[in-house]
Amino acid sequence: MIQIKVASVDDVLIIQKIGRETFLETFQERNTAEDMQEYLAERFSDLQVHNELKNVESIFYIAWDQEDPIGYLKLNVGQAQTEFKLEDHIEIERIYVYASHYGKQVGQMLFFKALETAKNLRVPTIWLGVWEENARAISFYKKNGFEEFDKHTFKLGSDEQIDILMKRAVV
Q: Is 141 a catalytic residue?
């Protein structure tokens, strides 16, 4: 049975492991090894993950299959948001799930946790950025009511990529 539990600073190693491994699973085929290594070293360093987990404006949840961590959700409010930093918005920065658990509703459960958190915080708008080449994720978000509203540049190592920005109302 899959459970979603809030993460704490004590979960640094779990978040690092899931983050690195799922990012590699998802994106290594379409990016250079150098860009991937640079991104992973920067975004999933001990200090970076520790600081993110410590930030009171970021909320992490870990998905567990029995004793095994299989994915996580990172939400940002206020100044922790990567882009808009509007008080009436909450950002889904990451929904990362191991490929071994695709099709088992883990991503959907994490998304529902994001909606529940937004409702509890009385935030009316939820938004995210997704790589324009990540068709699987774009399809998932559209299925869950997100609509495109803008684009921005996402830097992966030395490669500048385009993220589609999507949002939906929290209802």
A: yes
Q: What are phi and psi of 114, to 5 degrees?
A: -65, -45
pTM > 0.85: yes or no: yes
The answer for 81, left when phi > 0, alpha when psi is -120 to 50, beta otherwise, is beta
pLDDT tens, residue by residue, 89-147: 999 999 999 999 999 999 999 999 999 999 999 999 999 999 999 999 999 999 999 99
Residue 41: which CATH number? Answer: 3.40.630.30
Closest to 93 (Cα-Cα) out of 109, 108, 112, 72: 72
List, for residues 74-100, the tens digit of each pLDDT value.
Answer: 999 999 999 877 888 999 999 999 999
Q: Which among 158, 152, 97 is positioned nearest to 127, based on CA atoms?
A: 152
User: What tokens were used for 155?
Assistant: 């830097």
Q: Which helix (H) or strand (E) holds 17?
A: helix 12-27
69: domain range? 2-125
Residue 142 lies in a domain: no
